[in-house]
């Protein structure tokens, strides 16, 4: 037990090496830009002040979004997705997989889950002992299930998921802008040092490498930023881009696609003043998501949601989540009754 615990602690410590490396690069870039460029190299005071103001704006937004991504603990499934005590005992005692599936199906009837395993089974995590909500996956590095998991990022030593995906996208955006600002303002002095129009001094090394490193980071973060903007527009996670989610009607990579506007606001929220800041504004609760494959009668859904203290639904494609007590099924045009309220769930065919 002790060696295993020691190995896990060592592994967790090693996982912070990429984060330490990034922070060392950020710290050096700050020193090189402020001291070596602005203090020792730029002769004009007006130019120096303007560079310092612009640089610090993007530096602040970059570091803010970066550390928000690192420090935001990935959210896991709520207790509603745990098996009730009786069903849990039956599940653990049962050795036949088909009977275990029947137990899971019974529990899942009262949960807003529409996705299945490639074999059509209920998605269940034996490690966390929960029925997996849609888009939820188990991270072997974090050793937990993560809501709307996108991927585990070694550069932030954290899982990127529902609770911090907006921060991660902003981190990529501001990292690109931060690198672009450095590249654009340093290039003229890079050329002057390179062509020997400025005398060799202690600043030369820093200026030359600052420009090269900034360009390399700008290209790499820009490519990642464009890719994740594409994912946001398609309402997919990185996992779903490589492996399409499986519904009762089969795999569908566009199962959660609504339209670009709704896809964007699902991640960034409906308050435009919050879009550029790394503060949480994503819609929904991370446990259930609107899917174009499931049509919910808005009036009937409103009654159930209001009964359970949820906000009302404005249109058939606008609910952020279904209540955990709402019964549903994969069969076409079936109706279930929950506490005297009826919710119509219709599975549409793929276009």
From TrEMBL:
Which PROSITE patterns does this entry report, sorted A to Z?
A: DHHC (PS50216)
Name the chemical reaction catalysed here: L-cysteinyl-[protein] + hexadecanoyl-CoA = S-hexadecanoyl-L-cysteinyl-[protein] + CoA
* Regions that span the bilayer: 20-43, 49-67, 167-191, 203-227
**Family under the similarity heading:** Belongs to the DHHC palmitoyltransferase family.
Q: Where is the composition biased (Polar residues)?
A: 306-330, 339-351
What residue spans carry the region label Disordered? 306-351
Q: Does the keyword Metal-binding apply?
A: no
Q: Can you name this protein?
A: Palmitoyltransferase
Q: Where in the cell is it found?
A: Membrane
According to its UniProt entry, this protein's organism is Myripristis murdjan (pinecone soldierfish)
Extract the GO molecular function terms from the UniProt entry: protein-cysteine S-palmitoyltransferase activity
Q: How does it sit in the membrane?
A: Multi-pass membrane protein
